[in-house]
Design a protein that fits this description.
Layout (H helix, E strand, L loop, with lengths): L1 H11 L3 H25 L6 H25 L22 H17 L2 H20 L5 H22 L10 H17 L12 H20 L4 E4 L2 E4 H16 L10 H34 L1
Antiparallel strand pairs: 1-2
Helix pairs in contact: 2-3, 2-4, 2-5, 3-4, 3-6, 4-5, 4-6, 5-6, 6-7, 7-8, 8-9, 8-10, 9-10
Length: about 290
C-alpha cells in the first residue's frame, strides 16, 4: 500500500509545473518558517510565540535526527528524483517535523482558524513534497508530522504562554509511543539496543507509564464513576489503546502478541498513575494551605 502511494505521488502526478512547486515548497518554503519565527522575536506581543516556534523547530529536528540514526531506514529506491535526496536516513521526515512544529505553535498561539488552517495546510504540502520528490515514504512523513505537531504543542504550552504549563509534555510522550509503535510495525527497531534482558518490557513500562503520568496531570485526576468505583480516565484510555495494539500485533508478520508486554504496560500505568496522583494531591494541599494563610 505504501509503495502504491509513493508511486502515485512520485510518478502518476508528475508534471513540470508540480516539479517546480514541490522543489520550492521543500527548499524555499521550509526556509521561510524559521525566518518568520526569528522575525516574531522583534515584536513584544509575539516574542513568546517566536521563541516557542524556534525552540519547537529545533527540538523537532533533534528528535527526527535521533530517530533517523536509530532506525537507519534507507531512502526510497527506483524513484523519480527531481532534486537530490539528503544524505540522511529516511525515517522520520525532518522537513515535515519542522513544518508541523511551526504550524502547531502558530495555530495554538494565533487562535484564528483561518491562520491555523493555512499554517497546517502549508505544513501538509511540505510533507507531500517530500513524497512527490521521492525523498520519503508516506510513513516517514506521517511520523514527522506526529513528532512536529507534538513538540510544537509542548513548545506552545511551555514557552508560548504564561505561566508555563509542563502538562503539555503529554503530547511529545504520545508522539513517542506512536512513532516507536510505527517503527516496530515497519521492522526498523534497533534490536542491538534491546539485547539486554527484559529491555523490551522496561520500554513498555516506561512508555505507557509516562503517558498515564502526563495524561492524569492533564485531566487533573478526573475519573469515571461506576457505582462506588472511580476509575481514572488517565488509566482507561491508555489501557484500551494498549489492549487494541497488542491484539493488532496478531495481524502483523513483524510483531508477536505477548501477554507479558501487556502486563508491563499495566504495571507502568499503575506505577506512574500513583506518582501523578500524589503530585496532584500535593499541589492541592499546597493551594489549600496558601488559601488558608
Amino acid at each position: 500500500m505504501e509503495l502504491q502511494i509513493l508511486e502515485f505521488f512520485n510518478r502518476t502526478l508528475a508534471h513540470p509545473a508540480l516539479d517546480v512547486a514541490m522543489v520550492g515548497l521543500t527548499t524555499v518554503g521550509l526556509a521561510l518558517l524559521p525566518a518568520i519565527g526569528a522575525g516574531l522575536l522583534a515584536s513584544a506581543r509575539w516574542r513568546r510565540t517566536g521563541i516557542a516556534v524556534l525552540a519547537a523547530m529545533g527540538f523537532s529536528l533533534l528528535l527526527a535526527l535521533a530517530f533517523q540514526y536509530l532506525t537507519w531506514r534507507p531512502r526510497p529506491e527506483n524513484v523519480r528524483l527531481v532534486l537530490a535526496a539528503p544524505n540522511f536516513p529516511a525515517f522520520p521526515s525532518g522537513h515535515t517535523a519542522l513544518a508541523f512544529a511551526f504550524a502547531t505553535v502558530t495555530a495554538l498561539a494565533v487562535r484564528r482558524w483561518t491562520i491555523g488552517a493555512a499554517a497546517l495546510l502549508f505544513a501538509g504540502l511540505i510533507g507531500v513534497s517530500r513524497v512527490y520528490l521521492g525523498h520519503h515514504y508516506p510513513s516517514d512523513v506521517l511520523a514527522g508530522a506526529a513528532l512536529g505537531s507534538a513538540v510544537g504543542a509542548a513548545g506552545y504550552g511551555i514557552l508560548g504562554r504564561s505561566p508555563a504549563d509542563w502538562r503539555w509534555l503529554l503530547w511529545p510522550q504520545l508522539a513517542l509511543v506512536v512513532v516507536i509503535t510505527q517503527i516496530a510495525y515497519l521492522g526498523f527497531l534497533p534490536l542491538h539496543l534491546l539485547r539486554w534482558p527484559m529491555s523490551d518490557k522496561v520500554l513498555h513500562f516506561l512508555l505507557f507509564g509516562a503517558v498515564v503520568f502526563w495524561l492524569n496531570l492533564w485531566l487533573n485526576g478526573r475519573a469515571f464513576q461506576a457505582g462506588r468505583w472511580a476509575v481514572p480516565l488517565a488509566l482507561i484510555l491508555p489501557l484500551s489503546a494498549a489492549i487494541l495494539e497488542e491484539g493488532a500485533q496478531s495481524f502483523s508478520p513483524l510483531r508477536t502478541a505477548d501477554v507479558t508486554d501487556l502486563v508491563s504496560d499495566v504495571a507502568g500505568m499503575l506505577f506512574f498513575l500513583a506518582l501523578s496522583t500524589r503530585f496532584i494531591r500535593s499541589k492541592q494541599d499546597a493551594a489549600a494551605r496558601y488559601g488558608a494563610g
